[in-house]
UniProtKB/TrEMBL annotation:
Name this protein carries in UniProt: Aminotransferase class I/II-fold pyridoxal phosphate-dependent enzyme
InterPro entries assigned to the protein according to its UniProt record, in alphabetical order: Cys/Met-Metab_PyrdxlP-dep_enz, PyrdxlP-dep_Trfase, PyrdxlP-dep_Trfase_major, PyrdxlP-dep_Trfase_small
Stated family: Belongs to the trans-sulfuration enzymes family.
One cellular component term from this protein's GO annotations in UniProt: cytoplasm
Annotated GO MF terms: cystathionine gamma-lyase activity; cystathionine gamma-synthase activity; pyridoxal phosphate binding; transaminase activity
Keyword annotations from UniProtKB, A to Z: Aminotransferase, Pyridoxal phosphate, Transferase
Biological processes per GO annotation: cysteine biosynthetic process via cystathionine; transsulfuration
CDD domains: CGS_like (cd00614)
Required cofactor(s): pyridoxal 5'-phosphate
N6-(pyridoxal phosphate)lysine carried by residues: 193
Domain of life from the UniProt record: Bacteria
Length: 379
């Protein structure tokens, strides 16, 4: 069955009432019939039917055995990090979501964990890693500079050294890219973004095929209480039904916006859909699209950045991405403000870098909006 069909079907109402959408079980606890033998559902922190249905839907779409639905994307990442033991170290892409970096930078030390930032996993020599390095964590394309990691070759080489591979696949979703197919151990998502798709909930997902790891992830999920509420599970499930349709439009619009921006003076665009992007060929080989996020450097000698941003009427100035509406943000002072200035400079997150999360509005309206903002912002 095709992805878009699976995204819609498969959540059967098991109450016998014939509801076309799966019911929302707004209950914290479940009556038990027997003092010795408990039913499938006991307490909603451990498992809830609405969440369980969503988790089956997500696992099925990813071609995975297991999925866990979490309260946020950061909760999904935190649960994956629970697999680390005191003394362990991880390799982390140097441009990942700012919250992920802040987690390792601020919460690792007290847990006796450490990390090393890696500029480019494609070139990284894994044979040199010290013994305490146990895992790698990466995003591809990265947030916000859209660097591409060659999943097949990097995962193969990391696994040859016995490293656990965790991929944050938020920008792509399983519709466009499935890291487990390349041998990744765990995939995490901020489902707040494309999966939910409407900027109305926070949610996360952890997906794996590893039978040995799943019980530990599940225990962390339950005991940290990092679970998705039944109502948000319902909303996420509803969002997933239109994920393929939305993502197709997001990336069609992103491509057109990127091409338009690329023709403007004083603008340097980062979007893997542009043929001259250094990761273009790898992206085409490992994903079935380029997604809806792009970033660009705006030459402040040509344009006044503030005026440009303020003049946009369809791109809301806000963090986040993956909702139906277009957004613009400045990573240096927003999504990645937790990075030190030195780190931002070393990896290219400059104050004139803007990130666009291109929505599903009419592309002509989006481009017209950018055009009028350029006109107003021109020095
Ligand atoms: C790539 C990526 N990973 C993880 C997160 C964290 O997700 P959440 O905000 O749902 O906790 C974000 C949020 O922006 C993100 O962009």
């Amino acid at each position: 069955m095709e992805y878009s069909t699976k995204a819609i079907h498969g959540q059967v109402d098991d109450t016998g009432k014939g509801a076309v959408t799966y019911p929302v079980y707004l209950t914290s606890t479940f009556l038990q019939e027997d003092v010795e033998q408990f039913g499938e559902f006991i307490y909603s922190r451990s498992a809830n039917p609405t969440r369980a249905t969503l988790e089956r839907q997500v696992a099925d779409l990813e071609g995975a055995k297991y999925a866990l639905a979490t309260s946020t994307g950061m909760a999904a990442t935190a649960i994956a990090f629970e697999l680390l033991n005191s003394g362990d170290s991880i390799l982390l892409s140097d441009n990942v979501y700012g919250g992920t970096w802040q987690f390792v930078n601020e919460l690792f030390e007290s847990r006796n964990l450490s990390y090393e930032l890696v500029a480019d996993f494609n070139q990284y020599d894994f044979s040199q890693v010290s013994e305490n390095v146990k895992a790698i964590f990466l995003e591809t394309p990265t947030n916000p500079l859209l660097h591409v990691t060659d999943l097949k070759q990097v995962i193969q080489r990391a696994k040859a050294q016995g490293l656990l591979v965790i991929v944050d696949n938020t920008f792509m979703t399983s519709y466009l890219q499935r890291p487990l197919d390349f041998g990744a151990d765990i995939v995490v998502y901020s489902a707040t973004k494309y999966y939910a798709g409407h900027s109305d909930i926070l949610a996360g997902l952890v997906v794996t095929n590893r039978e040995d790891l799943y019980p530990r992830l599940k225990v962390a999920h339950k005991l940290l209480g990092a679970i998705l509420s039944p109502f948000d599970a319902f909303l996420l499930s509803r969002g997933i039904k239109t994920l393929p349709l939305r993502l197709e439009k997001h990336q069609e619009n992103a491509q057109l916006v990127a091409e338009y921006l690329n023709q403007q003076e004083g603008v340097q665009v980062f979007y893997t859909g542009l043929p001259d992007h250094p990761g273009h060929a790898i992206q085409e080989g490992q994903a079935s699209g380029h997604g809806g996020v792009l970033s660009f450097l705006l030459d402040e000698e040509v344009y006044e950045l503030d005026i440009f941003v303020q003049s946009l009427t369809l791109f809301g100035f806000a963090v986040s991405l993956g909702g139906v509406e277009s957004l613009i943000c400045r990573p240096a002072t927003m999504t990645h403000e937790s990075y030190s200035v030195a780190l931002q400079e070393s990896i290219g997150i400059r104050t004139n870098l803007l990130r666009l999360a291109v929505g599903i509005e009419a592309s002509k309206d989006l481009i017209d909006d950018i055009k009028q903002a350029f006109e107003k912002a021109k020095r």
